[in-house]
Amino acid sequence: MPDIFYPIPKFRFKVKWDSLSRETEIGFTEVTGLDYQVDVIEYRDGIDPNLSKRKIAGHRKFSNVVLKRGVFKGVRDFYDWIDGGDKANEKSLVKRKDYRRTVTVTLMDEAAVEVVSWNLQNAFPTKVQFSDMKADGNEVSIETIELAHEGVTVSYH
């Protein structure tokens, strides 16, 4: 009987980032913005016999990655990261040596076997958003962090 292959569902994933002296693994409810794009440069000079422009690959572009998770008592790593934690008294972000981090998002199959990973290089927070409050709401409180980064590499396991 031949093997039947199914696409991997997207509901089982994990996120890790290097944090000071250890690697931290955190559970999230949603990850968006894992994309990669190449700008197109169009060029045509006046003596080109073709009546169309040439298309040349330009700069690579990466969207910001947005991570969402539930709010937990005593967990403040999103705020500490964007605020600088105990280094908040230093005025310049350049002086914060641990500000940029490597963030890894890994998709797993139903048996928790890693299938594909996205590694974000030199990621740093550009926005932290705390949950809205609603007196008659019945939802979990969700906090969001938006990360800018300087590149993504994809690894298939």
From TrEMBL:
Q: Name one Pfam family in it.
A: Phage_T4_gp19
Superkingdom is Bacteria
Entry-linked InterPro entries: CHP02241 (IPR011747), Phage_T4_Gp19 (IPR010667)
Q: Which NCBIfam families match?
A: conserved hypothetical phage tail region protein (TIGR02241)
Name this polypeptide is given: Phage tail protein
What is the species of this protein? Dyadobacter sandarakinus
Lineage in the entry?
Answer: Bacteria, Pseudomonadati, Bacteroidota, Cytophagia, Cytophagales
